[in-house]
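mind reviewing these tokens:
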Amino acid sequence: MTRNLMPREWLLLAILAVLLLVSSYLMFFYLPMSTERDNLQRDIESSRLELEVAQIQVENKQRMEQELAQIFAQNPNPIGLAHYDNVQAVMLELHSILQAADDYALSFSTVDASQKIVRRSISLNFTSGSYASARQILQRLNDSAYRCMLESLSININPNRNRANSVAVNGVIVFFEYQ
């Protein structure tokens, strides 16, 4: 028993078929493609950020290489960092420099070894016969064979009333060592 469909039923079937086609298109093509497009856009953005970071790193590396080239152009043998526990060599260096002073005293602080670069702080006090000799001693300390930094310097001219031109220097010198 076959029955012919009425035009109204054909219309409903056509609407149902169109809805089925549209929903199939959305479900199986449009939504997966839009999800894939969004993922690709995120990947592109993250790649763009990685590229910018890499370009900044390359620029920093080139800048550092230029700075190193300038340093080596000025001084072909720059002073490097001594290895850790260099206290005996530092003591000999300090004694050879400070023996030009009238008298001197050194006080060693606790070594700061919390990072790869160790900081060895030494408080120093010395008196010298003149300002020029005190300046020369400070310059020799600054130009030491070991990396160091002079901190908290105070220079008092004529602290000892018995000597006319005496100069007293107090400060901290920090030696750097590689751990």
